[in-house]
Amino acid sequence: MMKTCETGKSFAPDYHFFKMFWVFLASSVAGCLIETGYAYLRHGDFESRVGLIYGPFSQIYGFAAVIMILILHRIGVKSWLCLFFSSALIGASFEFLSSLIQEHVFGSVSWDYSNHPLNIFGRTSLEYAVFWGLLGAFLIRVFYPLLSGAIEKLPCRFGLVITWLLIVFMAADMLLSSAAVMREHERHHNIAATNSIQRILDHYYPDSFIKAKYPNMLHV
User: Fold this and answer.
1) d(CA 201, CA 220)
2) Average pLDDT of the chain?
3) Residue 78 has what pLDDT?
4) Could you tell me if 173 and 54 are in contact, meaning their C-beta atoms sit under 8 angstroms apart?
5) How confident is the model at residue 113 (pLDDT cuts 50, 70, 90)?
6) In the predicted model, is pLDDT for residue 39 greater than 90?
7) Contacts 24+ apart (CB under 8 A), 7-11
8) Contact 96/128 with Cβ under 8 angstroms?
9) Dihedral sign (CA 138, 143, 146, 149)
10) C-alpha angle with apex 96: 141 to 109, nearest 5 degrees?
C-alpha cells in the first residue's frame, strides 16, 4: 500500500495511500470554496467556512470524497443515477456521523438543520443529501479521473517530498485545530488554564479568533 515510485511505475498508482491523501487535500479545498460560495449566494456576504485553523480546508469534504472513491469508484459504479443515490446516502450518513462525533468529542455542532424539511435530528437533511448526491456523481465521473491522472504524473522525488511535507502539515493543522476548539469549549465552561499548553492556546487562539474562524459553531 505504501510502496511507490517503483521502476517503470507511476507515482501513487491505483488507490495508493498517497493518492488518497491528495484526493483528501484537493476535495477539502474544493469543499471549502463550494461552502463559501454557497454561503455568499444564500446570505450575501463572505463567511468563514473553513474546518481547520490554517488553510482553506473543509476536511469533511475530503474524508467524504475518499470514502466515496474507495467504495463507488473502486467497485465500478457507472450509472449516473446509481452514483447520485449512492453518493447521497454516503454523504448524508457521513455528515450525520461527523456532527455526532463533533458534539460528543468537542461539545459543539457546526450545523443544525432542525428547521429543514425531512431532517434527521438536525444533523443532515434531504436538501443536503441531494447536494451530496450531485457532488459525489461529479467527483466519481469527472473530478477524480482528472485528479488521478495528474497525481500519477508527479515526478517521483518531488512527489514524495511534497506529499510527506503536506501530510505533516495537515496532521499538525488538524491536531492544533482540535486542541484550540477543545480549549475554547473549556473556556466556555469557565475552566481555567492549568498548564503551559492551555495558556498558549488561550493567548494565540482566544474566543474571538475561534468565533471568526467558526462563526456557525454552537455549544451544546
Assistant:
1) 21
2) 94
3) 85
4) yes
5) very high
6) no
7) 10/152, 10/153, 11/151, 11/152, 11/153, 11/154, 11/155, 11/156, 11/159, 11/160
8) no
9) negative
10) 120
> Which of these ranges, 22-26, 37-41, 163-167, has the smallest mean pLDDT?
37-41
Q: Which three cell numbers stand for residue 39?
A: 454561503
What are the residues whose beta carbons fall under 8 Å from the beta carbon of 32, sequence distance 6 or more? 49, 50, 51, 56, 57, 58, 61
Instruction: Convert 146-164 to b/e letters by CB count within 10 Å (16 or more is b).
Output: ebbeebbebeeeebbeebe
Q: Which residue has the cell 495528474?
A: 150
Distances (CA, A) of 171 to 21, 99, 136, 216: 11, 20, 25, 24
59-92 pLDDT, tens per residue? 999 999 999 999 999 998 889 999 999 999 999 9
- Contact criterion met (CB below 8 Å) for 100 and 114: no
Torsion of the alpha carbons at 115, 99, 174 and 106, rounded to the nearest 10: 100
